[in-house]
């Protein structure tokens, strides 16, 4: 049964449904949301030509749409600028863009020949056989064409990937949004953003430090202005993510109070933590490694190649407290209610440390299975932090739902002691069989269907969708 596999501890509160319009915020006549699969959509980036998803052929797939100027030259280590397409050439959105520069760009000669589940997941984690480029600020859209021009615009779910702010890509097949779009009447979007030293550089010469989060904000602004052309409702945008992607969802909720744009938040195994104060140690060590010494080293760093910079990068490159985008004291801000007052659905898996087993197995050093620790939910920092995040919403009259994910299925079993960090993604997107080639079990099909219904019902109506699904409203269990 559903509740035997996925324990929902509820902490928990109008959605405006819009009909298709004839023009968007920028004023151009850009769409008729009825039409054929893969139809061309006019956007602020230019006309975008889609295609039918090879997995779900009734779904329009638009891959690699640029939302920002390539962050190269003087735009390297700078806040993103909206994409300009002066030629107005059509964008053939037929393939994913390259991944943003990641530490794994230096290890593409790595060999992972096995075909166990751990091997498959490990290959995705290390971005094996991917290309990397700074020209990576793109997004992907999965939508099902409207059958009626009077059909209401659909809710939009925007996915931010994890990877510890040092790796990750929207091209990971686990994040393919075609099934959600096909079965649940939503628009699914995934976003590339800068990571590591390119996304969070830490230089004292820079006015903006948290560039990766600014990338995501610009992508959300692009969706506000353009998503109606794909059949999406710009008034019903929900952010969701896992691990570092979930942390950024929470970071966003504190950073953009004045103009939220979004309508709800789904946080899977991640929350906003107190960001460290700006420290130039990592930047200075990294710039010194590529012979960019002295106080004015920014221009020198902009002259180096991507691989040179990645090879020299050492130290912390993640969100840094600038008191604009990331903050040093989130608990104080939670107590003051300094966050976007929109509902959240947040939770974690029962073996958050299990990803370490995946990494070890992918490296050929699997540890022996151990008995599952039944108290992991209470003691793991992700569980504790997520409870604090949800309780803060409750204290300020915001509805929040809290869950514990414990399911593990044959096509996800990597020898861990429970549901490992990230194993919930396969049920949310319905991609486990797509990724592994191993069919879902009947129990998994039923469970995955209910999980996807919960996630998308929340996106359709963050205030009441889960209530109408039968989930009770919040009670504070004191897990903080």
Task: Break the fold down into its secondary structure elements and pairings.
Layout: H1 2-5, E1 6-9, E2 41-43, E3 46-49, E4 51-52, E5 60-66, E6 91-92, H2 117-125, E7 138-143, E8 154-160, H3 178-184, E9 187-191, H4 196-199, H5 211-226, E10 232-242, H6 244-255, E11 264-268, H7 281-289, H8 298-303, H9 306-312, H10 330-336, E12 344-349, H11 355-362, H12 376-379, H13 381-395, E13 400-405, H14 425-429, H15 432-436, H16 442-460, H17 465-468
Parallel strand pairs: 3-6, 8-9, 8-10, 10-11, 11-12, 12-13
Antiparallel strand pairs: 1-13, 2-3, 4-5, 5-7, 7-9
Percent of sequence in beta strands: 5-15%
CATH architecture: 3-Layer(aba) Sandwich
Assign the CATH class: Alpha Beta
Average pLDDT for all residues: 87
State the domain count: 1
How many distinct beta strands?
A: 13
* Cα distance spanning the termini: 28 Å
CATH superfamily, by name, is Alpha/Beta hydrolase fold, catalytic domain
Strand numbers in spatial order across the main sheet: 1-13-12-11-10-8-9-7-5-4
User: Secondary-structure element sequence?
Assistant: HEEEEEEHEEHEHHEHEHHHHEHHHEHHHH
Cα shape = globular
Largest sheet: 10 strands, mixed
Helical segment count: 17
| Residues in helix, % | 25-40%
């Amino acid at each position: 049964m559903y509740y035997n596999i996925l324990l929902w501890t509820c902490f928990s509160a109008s959605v405006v449904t819009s009909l298709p319009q004839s023009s968007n915020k920028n004023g151009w006549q850009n769409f008729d949301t009825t039409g054929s699969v893969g139809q061309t959509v006019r956007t602020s980036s230019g006309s975008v030509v889609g295609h039918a998803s090879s997995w779900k052929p009734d779904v329009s797939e638009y891959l690699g749409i640029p939302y920002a100027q390539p962050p190269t030259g003087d735009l390297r280590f700078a806040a993103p600028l909206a994409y300009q397409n002066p030629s107005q050439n059509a964008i053939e959105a037929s393939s994913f863009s390259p991944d943003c520069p990641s530490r794994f760009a230096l290890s593409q000669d790595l060999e992972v020949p096995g075909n166990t589940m751990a091997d498959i997941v490990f290959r995705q984690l290390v971005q094996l056989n991917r290309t990397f480029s700074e020209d990576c600020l793109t997004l992907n859209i999965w939508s099902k064409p409207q059958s009626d021009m009077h059909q209401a615009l659909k809710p939009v779910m925007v996915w931010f990937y994890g990877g510890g702010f040092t790796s990750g890509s929207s091209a990971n097949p686990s994040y393919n949004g075609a099934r959600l779009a096909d079965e649940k009447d939503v628009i699914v979007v995934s976003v590339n953003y800068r990571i590591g030293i390119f996304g969070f550089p830490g230089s004292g010469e820079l006015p903006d430090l948290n560039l990766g989060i600014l990338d995501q904000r610009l992508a959300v602004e692009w969706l506000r202005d353009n998503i109606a052309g794909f059949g999406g409702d710009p008034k019903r945008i929900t952010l969701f993510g896992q691990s570092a992607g979930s942390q950024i969802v929470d970071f966003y909720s504190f950073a953009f109070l004045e103009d939220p744009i979004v309508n709800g938040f789904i946080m899977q195994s991640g929350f906003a933590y107190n960001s460290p104060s700006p420290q130039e140690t990592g930047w200075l060590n990294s710039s010194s490694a590529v012979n960019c010494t002295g106080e004015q080293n920014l221009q020198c760093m902009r002259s180096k190649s991507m691989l040179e910079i990645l090879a020299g990068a050492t130290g912390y490159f993640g969100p840094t407290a600038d008191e604009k985008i990331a903050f040093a004291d989130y608990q104080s801000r939670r107590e003051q209610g300094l966050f976007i007052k929109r509902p959240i659905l947040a939770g974690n898996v029962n073996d958050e440390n299990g990803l370490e087993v995946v990494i070890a197995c992918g490296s050929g050093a699997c540890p022996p299975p151990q008995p599952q620790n039944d108290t992991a939910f209470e003691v793991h920092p992700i569980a504790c932090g997520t409870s604090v995040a949800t309780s803060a919403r409750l204290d300020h009259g915001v509805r929040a739902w809290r869950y514990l994910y414990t399911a593990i299925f044959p096509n996800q079993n990597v020898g861990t002691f429970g549901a490992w960090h990230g194993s919930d993604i396969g049920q949310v997107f319905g991609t486990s069989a797509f990724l592994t080639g191993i069919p879902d079990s009947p129990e998994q099909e039923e469970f995955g269907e209910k999980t996807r219904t919960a996630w998308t019902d929340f996106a359709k109506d963050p205030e009441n969708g889960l209530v109408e699904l039968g989930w009770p409203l919040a009670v504070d269990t004191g897990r903080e």
